Batch of 2 targets.
Target 1
Amino acid sequence: MDSRDELAARLDACQKCNMCTAQCPVAKVNPRFIGPKGLGPDMERFRKGQINLDETTLDDCSNCKTCELTCPSGVKITEMILGARRAASKARHKNTMGLRLGLRGYILGRNEYLGKLGVIWPTLTNQVLKIKLVRLALDKTLSISKNGPLPAYGKPLKIQPDKVGIGTNTNKQVVYFPGCYTRFNEGDTGRILIRLLEHLGYKTIVPDFHCCGLPLEANGQFGKADKNGRYNLELMRPYLEAGIPVITSCTSCGLTLKEDYPKLETRSAQLIGAQAYDLFEFLWQLHEKGELPLDFQEVRASYGYHPPCHLKAQGIGTPALRILGLIPGVKIRNIDAGCCGLSGSYGFKAEKYEKAMKIGSGLFEAINVGSQHGDFQSMTTECGVCKVQIVHGTGIPTEHPVHILAKAYRLID
Amino acid sequence: MREISTQVVVIGGGATGVGILRDLSMRGIPALLLEQGDLAHGTSSRFHGLLHSGGRYAVKDDKAAQECIEENTILKTIAAHCIEDTYGWFVFLKGDDPNYLELWLQGCDQVGIPVREVPLEEGFRLEPLLTRQATRIFEVPDATVDGFKLLWSNVKSAEKYGGTYQTYCKVQSLWLENGRVIGVYAEELITGETLRVRSEIVVNAAGPWSAEIAAMAGFNVDVLKDKGSLLVFNQRLFNRVINRLRVPGDGDIFVPHQTVTVFGTTSHTVELPDDHQVDEQDITYLIELGQNLLEGIEQQRIVRSFAGIRPLYESVEDQDQEGRGVSRNFVIIDHQKMDGVQGLVSILGGKLTTYRLMAEKVSDWVAAKLGVDTACRTAEEPLLNEQPAEVWDKARQLIGVAAANKMMERLNEQAGAVVEAIARQPLLGQFVCECEMVTQAEVIHALQDPAVNSLDDLRRQTRLGMGTCQGAYCSYRATPMIQEAFGGWERTVKEYRLLLAERWRGITPVLWGEQLRESELARALFLNVLDLKAEESEG
């Protein structure tokens, strides 16, 4: 079956049960949104013949992929919607609004370059982005919400090219795909991850990857997304061929590597699907093989855990919860109260900000209630932008679970 | 008994009948159309949805081919909103008869059907599912046509010119006096009342029922009732009409109809004009034939099957022929000449593609009889009036481009009111029918139409229940509205049962795979959520 047949078969599989729409975080807060079934399989029937290129409602989808996870018939709903956006992106920019949104898509999709600029003088960038007038200007010119929680920049993560070559000891090496957020906004997480893997006896290689492409895709920059994918795959190629795993700490990058890269037609695309791991998925495998040292120190702390949508979409469960559960003293509660609403860059958009906050409101409430009851003091989640949104919505400190594990190994305080 | 009088009574609310009603009305001739069911419930809604280019008849039936290409061109102009100009391909397969190919090319050339050969590579790129057994592909101006929309547009246009129609009004007998038909007796099926209509001329345009009508005056017309069965696939498999380039036969046309694909047909002579039951052997037979043009067709999901009756006219020369051999031409029978009775004319044979021409010829005959010399204008005057740009813009803004286009085409002049209703109350813009994108406001609007007497009428007007879910979700979603319009739960349940019985009749013969899965879900919905009883839902 080629991909066209496969998509056609999946359209046939849709039972129109609307479970996807019932679970869709956007549909929950916006009764006028026709939902994933409508935007995906229903409209796909029309798009197959009578294509409607300028369908602006396509942008209402936040690309969280909850629909695909929910569908009992395996219909690739988000994929259909993205395909339609891909077609629509070729027919945009007909008026000034279209041009403005196109430019915004261009910018929001290029978080990598923004990151590279931002980290030149992080404190200055952060201060500038805090100026109300600047945010107002961004809102008015680019429709980037003046209220959205744009993440701050920090000391960037250095790349670690492979100077000595792969050599023979391939089973003690990993390639780390840090993703833009870790690289430019939260370099600490990346540095801790590398120390942790080192502690476990692994050499970590960090090639100079470009952005994984997901933000580009979500902002309609499909050509550039594919280009980035092929570039990154080429950097990974020697390691993939040597059987070395690729580790991600960002769940959205992870999903892209696992789901989108295999569709790019290169040789390494055939390998990446089976060799990409979420950090905690990788660690749990080590644990199952008895290779994860359990000499943890007690960590007396309590956390609420938020499972990111793109982790769920990977279909690997919640390995971070399982690993953290091994640490003595750690009290952790799975909040699992739905999407945070930010969904990559969705919540940064002026017309989406209110919706995004509404989508996240269920989660915020669960976190506030939990922390007020004293169930936990802080939050943990793998996804960088979920973290930013949780802090924005609740004010509760939030960190990547690798920090907690590093504390247990006495790598950080 | 109610009595009315008019100049012309048209029997039959199919394409031909409504075409005649419009034509006469445009010539200023008062006419009343009587239909035993809803408009288009017979042959006019039970066909491929193909607007012929004439290519199919180019070898054997050059007159039919010529009429088709001429009407094809006219309808694409006057009824553009009912037509998707997909174009059609005639595909010549490895091993097919090369002599036929030559004859076909000559035939097309002679009657003026434009033919373009499509390079194979382009063909496989544009239609990836097309069999690789294809060796040559020819493009002709075939298109697809929405029969319901076409009929409704004709009726709405006729009404503007003073034409009237009555549905659910079954003609019981012809009113004969002194060797002259002076009207009809009919029963209004909803009230049970008898209606007597006095008229100068009665036009018998009853399609498969024509023989029954003629028999009321004791006349015999030879209508061969030829049943054709078709399959509806869950999605568009092709984007063009795909014909097999060979002597026309069974199972050799695929038509991409809106969001689905219609594939057929078969040909069996039957006795009853409403024998719409699809036999299971025909389904297996069709799927087998479909393999020739689309390999792996059995993997594609089928949502339903249906059958229609071709009312073919059997001329004296055709007497020995079975269905496919009979000409697709039409004929007008003046019963004065044939049977010595004045005031009755029958129109027999023909096809949907030529409905307008048939109507024109009959109307010419009627006008001549009545001494009216106004010329026919149906070939020039469009069926649809352009709606103001503000209404379009507002509709698109409120319910999205795709849904707005569909709605505007269905409602035309009445769209303004629906758009206003949604603007006042945006939630009325939510879809009741998601498959066909029909809003709550449109359903409410249709339910207020006096012509909508049942859920089935609603379906034909709005396409609610016509989509790929086959009424499973939309009908229960419409419950509150239906209950209000039909006055209570008991009647609503009755309507559900009728609608579902008809839908299930089409679904049960193709119940396997994904369709079976979905049907089980639908069954559970009606049994559990709506608390219908199993014995009732079996209809």
Note: The mean pLDDT of chain B is 91.
Target 2
Amino acid sequence: MAERNGGRVPTDLAVIARDIGSLLLMEAGLMTLSVLVALGFREFHAALGFLVAGGVTALAGGLANRRFADAPEPKMKHGMVIAAGGWLMVAVFGALPLFFTAWLTPPAVMDAFVPAAADTSSWEPIGVGGTATLSSLAYFRDPLHAVFESMSGWTGSGLTMAIHEPSLPRAVQWWRSFIQWVGGVGVIVLTVSILSRPGSGSYALYRSEAREQKIHPSVVSTVRTVWKLVVGYTLLAFATLFVAIRASGSAYAESLSLGETAWQALNHAMTGLTTGGFSVTDNSIATYGSPLVEAALLPIMILGAIAFPVHYVVLRDRSPRELARDLQTRWLFALLGAGVVVLSAQNVASVPVVSGAFATESFLSFPVPLLDGAGLDAVRDSTFQWISAMSATGFQSAPIGDWVAGAKVMVVGAMVLGGAAGSTVGGIKIVRGYTVARGIAWQFSRVFLPKSAVVTARIGDRTLDRETMEREFGEAAIVTLLWLVALVVGSLVLVNVAGPEFGYADALFEVASAQGNVGLSSGITGPSMSPLAEGMFVLNMWIGRLEIIPVLVFVRAVLYGLNP
Amino acid sequence: MSWGVNWKASVGLLGVGIKYLAVTMLVPLVVALVYGEDIWVFLVSMALVAGVGVLVERVDPDPDLGPREALLFVSLAWLAAAAIGTVPYLIAGYNTASTVGLQTGSIGALTESVINALFESMSGFTTTGATVLGEISTDRHSHALMMWRQLTQWLGGMGIIVLMIAILPEVAVNGAQLMESEAPGPELQKLTPKIAETARALWLIYFGFTVVYIAILYGLHVFGMAPNMDLYNAVAHGFTTLPTGGFSPEADSIAAFSAAVQWVVIPFMVVAGVNFALFWHVLRGEAEIMLKNAEFRAYAGALAVVTALLAVLLFRGAAPVIELGGATQGVTENSLRQAAFQIGSLLNSTGYATADFAQWDTHAQILLMFAMFIGGSAGSTGGGVKIVRWLIVGKAIRRELFTSAHPDVVQPIRLSGSVVDEDAIRGIMSFTLLYVVLFAVSAVFLSLDAARIGTQLTMLESTSASLATIGNIGPGFGRLGPFGSYLFFPDTSKLLMIFLMWIGRLEIVPVLAVFISAIDAR
């Protein structure tokens, strides 16, 4: 046995292991909580699976936590490594409930999860131990699929290995939504307290604590505030969705019982608000085929794309004007509006080229000038998908794989940029894009000034001196460059391993979606994809969620340690 | 309106340059005399261009350039050169079937022919090598006109501004500022105290390499190892190898010549991607400066690694057996030669080809695309992002990782032993990002614009068209392959690509700086 904090276990490692251990303990708590859900729905195999997973996670977390209990308080330099390592470990252990449930549930019981009303003629049977089942739960017997699903959940991505979500046990449906919801809170905490350092582009919830050396107090107070906001908004979203689904009047919605409606509204509220994108319906939001449900989801997704510090100020001061005062929120609305218009124009123009991508019958009961049924459907799909992409939610209401390459590439643009830093979106974030653009223009305007000239730059309502501007620009530029490099490399790998029916635009789309934690799919992602690509996506989702740098710091720390 | 810049001074100086550009048309004139071709094309062109030069000069007969005027001058000089370069194309092909000849049949035909000629000329001066010529042969176009096409690349290679500084005293006064704006790469190395001498040294090295190269090519012909490499071809290719140009009067590019010629072309293409200032040190007996240069080492390393990878792919059968290039599967010499040639050509933005790599498999094409992104060295004649920029971006990223964990530590970035200025690092970041964004946005535009006229581009075609023009490379993939043509693009796309070649050659900065300072000044 190595001595504590001395000899073979360096202090830094002890600090990091202790904190990741406590994260795992919390996760074990979440799993135990989910056992109640499984019991409530009388899914005893799933309950056992969650219990075992919780036990294993608690054991691993407890060991690390107890063994290094007297390690010193973590400092800022540990923050990034804890965040990156923590996210990875939480995702790996989060796969256990899926994995254990899949192995502990007998095939006959799995079959019972397939809804009786579902048309299963096109479903692919999955072989399990000599027999076959139609339940997508069986996919999680493959550990890679389970880890993929868990990483997709914890990072709020929404790409899924469960092709037919309704055929999953309720407990697993719940777990997928729940980890997106908790992961969403986690990422807000991450960006507003741990990654928020001078020049990081993201800003602190409480200014005074931004430069604090100890991270625990800052994290704890952030969690307390964010928690209330998220719970409140989720309840609001739940009520809205519940009413929207009941009132939509589509054949599918009519067939739902009151309890089922509530269940779907709850899950979609949780994953929509935290811009995760997991769904409990077979074809995501397209299942409802309802303009009303889509319209109800738009404000929920947009709420999730606004920085939480801004929500906090708006609610605290009861002044919606704060929304307009915030640079990122202003740009978010401008980009959402402009993108909807441009993408709609592209898709309306492409209606004759892509047959079958858009419905032919108008969803409105009255005629609209200039647009026929397909054109209207193109506008409706473009609106929903653009907002879903930019807010990194990933709810899908249209077969994007059938769109023309130009439209796909536009959506890639939205997924790369993302929404406001300090929310649950992915991508490089608006504030970074703005800093980069501003910094480049600023540099050129200085070409003719002497080096000693006093120059300032404005970003939003902050006036930055030369040094701060240079620092912020440098950080934003590096993250953006790394982001693009990872995107290009990833898509080049993917286009080589994906099937011949997918072009480069599809590959680019899929990688941008994974790395931007969006979850829209052009059709490449699924249990039959190549394991290499699947493993790569796990990596893409991980580095995307942490904005790359912390992951690289983590890798560097693993290789060389934390000391200079 | 002042726009914060004394544009008359810049334009006046432009006149001087245009006047001298008329003189260079003596070369095709001589070719026309030798081959007994129509000399009037070039006589008329010379007179026209000289006249324009004299007229423009009178805008400001005694130009006095400040920094803004210098940047404007450099930006305009490349536009003017490209515009002047169209004159022989337009006149020689006047109302014939030539795609670059002036067509007066209709407004549409007129604009299309002018845009085509401008595309070809810009592609020449910026040493891109993308063509809209349609049929490339000396039977179809005169020997003289094809030689003019080659000559534009040679003039553009080392930089027309550097050439002007070297020979025109009135330009040399503001030489340092001018050269800084034109020089490929982030910073200018002054070799001598007087900038005109530096410019002269660079042009002499360039000239020297060209002469030696032509002599070797023609020597091969004389000794019977290169039947097709007659004096005309030797000179023509001499004009487009050292400037990393890529134009060839042969439709089959270098595939028209023997393996011996191909092996000779490779080292000279490699040389063209090296910082020419390093050769100056070598000539002074300081070879170790070259060997210790970080960029040179990275360049050599990149060439070796990518070539080896490609050779393995080719050896294992990445290329279908087609007429040109011969079989590579299981053939060591040809695999090596094809790999070394294509990488030597694309990595530093030359654009020659000895095989139709547009028909290779996806893996090989993606490797080539990767090579195209690297670019030559700063201070070479090559285009692209440039190796030194990638080196510094890489080092800046590594530093960022370190300072993320240790915000209090100050760590300078060093290259070849010396500290790199922080301003330069940020400049490089801006450049690289702008380059990538422009590349991506242009690729989308090209694809949409082609769809507008009913042509569907593949993703590989649209991205390679964008990359090949902004990087001054030339050939792309698909229909834009080394033996393909950019002719089918709509006019608007061609205009965009002309713009891309222009700012790609000037490395974006002068053009943008002029725009932005003009806006600020208002």
Note: The beta strands of chain B are 414-415, 418-419.
